[in-house]
Task: structure prediction
Amino acid sequence: LSPVEVYRQQHEVTASGDNVPAPFMTFEDTGFPPEILREIHAAGFTSPTPIQAQTWPIALQSRDIVAIAKTGSGKTLGYLMPAFILLRQRCNHSQNGPTVLVLAPTRELATQIQDEVLKFGRASRVSCTCLYGGAPKGLQLKELDRGADIVVATPGRLNDILEMKKIDFRQVSLLVLDEADRMLDMGFEPQIRKIVDQIPPHRQTLMYTATWPKEVRKIASDLLVNPVQVNIGNVD
Ligand code: ADP
Ligand code: MG
Result:
């Protein structure tokens, strides 16, 4: 077996799709800028988690991914690192709207994601706004007005703000659906579809889910283009 095959077997990684690149088995393999690697080392991380190792090289090729993995596998940095790299390449003005949109099921999750953006995106000077329900819109709209490279949002609140025409999605080139199965369980499918309708079609889409039932497969086939499917562990 080749080192890549050994790695995939040991870490229960399966990947299917066209020309799947080899995993980045070490942080040095990633080619991330030194100031990003410094943040990672400062956090005490010694190697990429299997989902990071396998999805980073695919995401950096601007390809769509559906990743099926349990919680605690390091999915957040799995999509945030490629987002930071994209933001460095694009040099978009955050005043004109976000470049990256992350959808997550709950306020708790959305704020956790924002915390990771602020921690690991500092070196890349990434700005981020978090939009969720159960809190007044005013402050969130004010923050949005200041401009954000990354918007992290729950689908309900984001859809409200979209209907108020308070957010411009024309620059969005990376869409992330985190915990897609949970968002569908919570009944957010109509809002997700309305939001996605506003995003330019030439985007990259990354979808993460812990389970793979037919509702999730359906939305994946509607929203992703020729994705690589990555499974970590024995998820069905
Ligand atoms: P998931 O979204 O898959 O549930 P998270 O992204 O929340 O997982 O990550 C779980 C924990 O692992 C977090 O505390 C995160 O900071 C940590 N973590 C992420 N990447 C690594 C890594 N490469 N090495 C060690 N810990 C990591
Ligand atoms: Mg997560």
